[in-house]
Amino acid sequence: MRRLPDVSWKTLPGSQDITRSVLPNGIILLTRSNFNSPSVVINGYLPSGSIFDPREKLGLAYFTSVALMRGTQYRNFQQIYDRLESAGASLGFGASVHNTSFGGRALVEDLPLLLGTLSEALQAPSFPPEQIERLRAQLLTGIAMRDQDTSDRASIRFDELLFPNHPYGLPEDGFTETVQAIQREDILAHHQRVFGPRNMVLVVVGAVSASQVYDFASQALGNWQNPSQPAMPALPPVTPLNGPVREHITLPGKSQTDLVMGGFGPKRSSPDYLAASLGNNILGQFGMMGRIGDVVREQAGLAYYASTSLNAWINTGSWEVSAGVNPANLQRAIDLILAEIRRFITEPVSLEELQDSQANYIGRLPLSMESNNGVAAALLNIERFQLGLDYYQQFPAMVSAITPEAVLLAAQRYLFPDRMLAISAGPDLME
Amino acid sequence: MTNPTLVKLPNGLTIHLKEIHTAPIISHWAWYRVGSRDEQPGLTGISHWVEHMLFKGSLNFPAGMLDKSISREGGFWNAYTHLDWTTFFETLPAGKIDLGLRLEADRMVNSLFKEEEVESERTVILSEREGSENEPLFRLGESVQKAAFDQHPYRNEIIGSVEDLRAIQRDDLYHHYQAHYHPANALIAVAGDFDTASLLKRLEELYGGIPAGPAVIHPAQAEPPFQTERRVEVRGPGKTTFIQIAYRSPAAGSADFFAFTVLDSLLTGPTSLNMFGGGGTSNKTSRLYRALVEKELAIGVGGGTQATIDPFLYEITITVRTGQSVDAILKTVDAEIGQLQQARVHPDEIARAIKQARAIFAYGSENITNQAFWLGYAEMFSSYQWFTEYMLRLEAVTPAELQRIAALYLLPERRVVGVYIPTGEENLVG
Asked: Residue A295 carries which DSSP code?
């Protein structure tokens, strides 16, 4: 077997240098120090995502998240941003199906400012009416632009067909009519009921010690309570696809067609996740976008990009192929992609291909964690999917243990070329 | 961390090395002084296409082997073509960097440019361009840029025009490659976990034997600003109106560039020049955000300039709020700029812009790839000193200088105003 890359273990985060603690009110805190740069990154989430949105007010969780910094009981919008921007710092919120997420960075001297702003936004937002309306106009413009984006349109329709009657099948930022239906009272009520410290995760990485972070975080967020914070609603089951679906969304005046194909993938905790992930790397990522990139871009010259992605969440996942192609080449690209997938589920990948991808997975670890942002994302991943603090230390051994047979089994479990969604968006197919 | 080592080999190759031992990683960059600035009419996009061809095989690294070799070692790599330069980089685990060094030395002079690879890449680049054309802001930006210069190649999109991309032949590409890719027109920058003496010896082995090559001619000349405002309109699908206003900005080597950077920070928020990991702060307290977005004329505003050899453009991009008029927005922009021209700003505002710049540099220094980027980047339009003195030059900016710069550069008669007018076509599902 080809020798796998030597990875310097001491640089990878693990139980030896990650500090995990829980504040008395339930906030989970993860910290890793890095004194090589005078900066600090924070990120994290709270379980208050679009899963709580009423269907007719889809976008409520997202609207609430971006309204948090529009004014608080202590400061107006301009005062909040004046403090942050004067320090060259940033903080922003967003929402996914499960979570309200946040991320920010600052020079380390401004970490108390960053955590103080986070705390005010979470605990004491005032949602000023004029700011809500200003924001609504911005959100509606964002949706109008999304409606004209070929890649977004294909992805949204893909999700809708893969996850019918399911929160995963709906865009978190809502639709024009649902955003118009959201009232300020809805935002207030959503915040009051759903936002709370229990199961909130806060990650801090940078030029600061774990004990300092604990003190700052306790001071900023330690007194927060919300006795009415609800449990996470159960997700409905997903229904298997029972035949192929081919749809085209016509967007007049566009030059390129974006294509999304695929179906279900493993959930993150599935035993075959890692085999599927390595398989995905071989199929559409390794080198210049794997086997599919090689056939569609490198050999046939049909596309600027043609790659695959495996998206694994708490309860399920998707396995997708994306490509941007000239409209005249669309069907040829689809045929080539299907042929590659058929081959992928019929014969095992070669040992050489697998070893290449294994080496890539292991070798890239230090690179993906050279910045505070990279480490913070890794720590968040560890907590979100309960991977264990030593996950990245054990990762090379887990990756090396995957065999071509395991990849083939995973591929056969999730990829069905005869029951695949293929959604395109672009100019009229007849143009 | 040590001061960088700056060396020039007898064949003219410049080498910049900086040891950083915080992580077992090395980032290696090969910079060439060639970009869309060096392109003649009929050959727009040729620099970018040459960049693509350097991924399609060289004497010792056949096509398809290159990317696999890098990926196998867990590295990442990419290349970029810009107005004044083209750059290629590999970031690898420290023990594997020799692969990147050998690869760049080989493709500096031994790239193959096979006919069939040229043809396959033609459709890939046309597809890349078609993807950009789907974006209203690309189409608007292309028109504004074209209107902003009469002759200077900065008027062309880096990716090139569709006509030229269809017409360029293999020999055109190979000639462009031979004319610009050689040691005297290049700079090698390496940052990371290495020993300078050993690495320098290895670079001398790999690059020292490559002949210096002919002197490179850069025919472009700075173009004086025009004297009457120009307007362009672009129509296309969608429901959203965009405005782009482009003023001629100072060259990076001009003393005015630093005051202009502060001006940009005040008007539309700080611009980050980092290529990796150095995203800055938001711009919600900038003067134009407050005047346009807070006053509900616009949905968003952003702006920025670039560090270039010749004067390029300071571009302000505005997403118009539904129902608001382009004229009302332009009047507001003029009023805000008028204030900067008529009254001196408080020194605190300059101090704030400097702190923002300091933070952006700190974020960028977390990352070795970005540190290697800075070792070479400033040499492409000025000198390495430009980078080392950057903060000092910003700190020297005075309120009086800002006022002078605003009055000199931000004149309505020296700008292009572009408007994207949505045709509002309905979507059809088929």
From this structure: I
Query: Token match 């995905």: residue?
Result: A280
Does the beta carbon of B365 lie under 8 angstroms from any beta carbon of chain A?
A: yes
Task: Provide the CATH number for the domain around residue A400.
Answer: 3.30.830.10
The answer to whether residues B245 and B416 touch, using CB atoms and an 8 Å cutoff, is: yes
Domains and CATH numbers, chain B: 5-207 (3.30.830.10), 230-422 (3.30.830.10)
* ipTM for the assembly: 0.88
The pLDDT tens digits for B319-371 are 999 999 999 999 999 999 999 999 999 999 999 999 998 888 888 888 899 99
Q: Are A93 and A101 in contact (CB under 8 A)?
A: yes
* C-beta atoms surrounding A209 within 10 Å: 12
Q: Which of residues 89-118 of A touch B (CB under 8 A)?
A: 89-90, 92, 105-107
Domain that holds residue A272: 245-426
Task: Please tell me the total count of domains within chain A.
Answer: 2
pLDDT tens digit string along B130-189? 999 999 999 999 999 999 999 999 999 999 999 999 999 999 999 999 999 999 999 999
How much of chain A is helix, strand and coil, in % rounded to 5?
A: 50, 20, 35
Query: In B305-398, which ranges are continuous DSSP H helix?
Result: 326-342, 347-364, 368-377, 384-388, 390-395
* Sign of the four-CA dihedral B398, B399, B404, B410: positive
Residue A6 is assigned to a structural domain of this protein: no
Q: In terms of domains, do A78 and A203 share one? A: yes
- Is the predicted pLDDT of residue B425 greater than 70, yes or no? no
Q: Three-state DSSP class for A241?
A: coil
Please list the helix, strand and coil fractions of chain B in percent, rounded to the nearest 5, in that order: 45, 20, 35
For residues A113 and A39, membership in a common domain is answered with: yes
Are the beta carbons of B247 and B409 closer than 8 angstroms? Answer: yes
Q: Which residues, numbered 285 to 324 in chain A, qualify as contacts with chain B under a Cβ-Cβ cut-off of 8 Å?
A: 286-288, 294, 297-305, 324
Q: Which residues pair with B27 in a beta bridge?
A: B91, B191
Mutation pick from A298, A357, A424 vs chain B, by most beta carbons of B within 10 Å, is A298
Verify whether the Cβ–Cβ distance B73 to A359 is below 8 Å: yes
